[in-house]
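Notebook entry, structure prediction.
Reason for the run: the old model in the group folder had no record of what sequence produced it. Starting over properly, with the input documented here first.
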Amino acid sequence: MIIITDSAADMPREELETLGVKVAPLHINFPDGEVSSEDISPDEFYRRLEAMQPAIPTTSQPSAGFFASIYEKFSDVKEEILSIHISSGLSGTIEAARLGASQVLGLSIQHIDSMTLSGGERFQVLAAALAAKAGWGKAAIVEHLKAVRESTEVIYTLETLSYLARGGRIGRVQALAGSLLKLKPIIKVDKADGKYSTVGKERTLGKALISIRAYLEHIYGSETPLRVSVMHGQFSEQAKELASLLEERLRIVKLEILRISPVLGVHTGPGIVGVAAVPMALFQGLE
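New structure, fully documented this time:
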């Protein structure tokens, strides 16, 4: 089985290579040209982002034609394809993928709307790739991904709302108010529509990190074995602090600290830190 995803899944390159997962890159549009998010490191991206201030680059999804070209590469393989993508509530990527698939005949392609992004999307891609390697059939994998999707939480905080506002991702009035009051928003990806929703606001980043922990503790309790990815832009110390806070109250079986993709950093800026969490039971027997 062929697993295809996009840059928003935040999967390290070595992980993609080990699992054989293919990536349709999202792009960052700088004034001097377009760059694949797969071809620029987070630190180089943030350096260029800082140099552009107060402007920010834009982002673009892969075209239907690009997806068609990816799918066509497997036309002679005769393997089933699972194409797992960033939430349709945040991007048109999956629609481009479906349109691209319609241009290629003779392939069995199942599209999965992750209804999330970043570490949450990555968990679904990981589960699919590992299950495929374990010999699961497509129907069983698709059903399992529903359980992963329903059980995963993605929640984060930001140093500033200005990047989301300039990128048009939240209302400008709300962003302006948050900026003036120096509030740190706590934002999750809502499973109902795959869009951002505000869980709360704190006056300091430290309090926001504690609120993230409280939210996850409310969802999972203190005894559920969890797999946790702490994600950040250019906030390594804050990511370590959040990881330590989580380990104090949650039963974490596997913990990783990872960088978010530059293509997501366009809309958050460097000051983002958050968590993707999923019950470890959903990976039992797959690793």
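Summary: The mean pLDDT is 93.
The old model has been moved to the deprecated folder.
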